[in-house]
Write a structure and sequence with these properties.
Elements (H helix, E strand, L loop, with lengths): L8 H33 L3 H17 L1 H5 L2 E3 L12 H8 L3 E9 L3 E7 L5 E2 L8 E2 L13 E4 L3 E2 L5 E2 L5 H6 L5 E5 L20 E4 L2 E3 L6
Parallel strand pairs: 1-2, 1-6, 6-9, 9-10
Antiparallel strand pairs: 2-3, 4-5, 7-8, 10-11
Length: 216
């Protein structure tokens, strides 16, 4: 029998079982990332452009976007769907635009306000363009609509990221709508989740919206 504050055989077995489960989910995620990246790599430039334009049209036509006064966006990199036109659309509509900015520490990123292209640094952490150091912090809870990149998504709004957990921490304080954006080939029947993963309220592809708030 374990002493006070110790763990008995059942507890130890439970911990080992959880570790095995976590390892299994991590392996499933890694395999899914490889599969989806291969799918995206197979897309032609014309198809990528067509799908990106459709996603921008869907998002800007969505009532939640139109009503939003503050929006969180991202600068696409690599194989992420190129929806940079959303930033211009938001500025043109007079919305407050916030982008992730690297701050280090446990959180990694924080939203900061950008009022125009001049507020963007040429390259920040990981080579991603982000707000300059002098830009004001944007409170996540005041953002009405946040657009989120991802490697894969499913119909329930579950998202597979790059594996660092930065967006899960960034989105933890968001109270408004969260919308994943991606190519159609990035949709899968189910994304495996771990305890720290945050599901999204919407997912937008060239075919329209999915997710719990798709009718909003």
């Amino acid at each position: 029998m374990a002493g006070v504050g110790g763990r008995g055989p059942e507890d130890a077995a439970g911990i080992r079982g959880q570790a095995v489960s976590d390892d299994s989910i991590a392996a499933e995620k890694a395999a899914l990332r490889a599969e989806i990246r291969a799918r995206v790599a197979a897309l032609g430039a014309e198809e990528r452009g067509r799908e990106a334009a459709a996603v921008v049209e869907w998002v800007t036509g969505f009532d939640g976007w139109r009503r939003a006064r503050g929006v969180g966006l991202f600068v696409p990199i690599g194989d992420e769907i190129p929806v940079g036109a959303l930033m211009e659309a938001a500025w043109k509509a007079g919305k407050e635009v916030a982008l992730p900015a690297w701050v280090g520490g446990e959180s990694g990123y924080r939203f900061r306000t950008v009022r125009g292209a001049a507020d963007l640094a040429p390259a920040g952490r990981f080579g991603i363009r982000e707000p300059k150091a002098g830009c004001e912090d944007a409170r996540a809870e005041r953002l009405d609509f946040v657009v989120v990149p991802g490697v894969a998504f499913d119909p329930m709004g579950r998202r597979l990221g790059r594996g660092k957990g930065y967006y899960d921490r960034l989105l933890a304080g968001v109270e408004g709508a969260t919308c994943g954006v991606g190519y159609g080939v990035q949709l899968v029947p189910r994304v495996p989740l771990e305890a720290h993963d945050i599901a999204l309220k919407l997912v937008a592809t060239a075919r329209g919206f999915l997710g719990p708030a798709a009718r909003g």
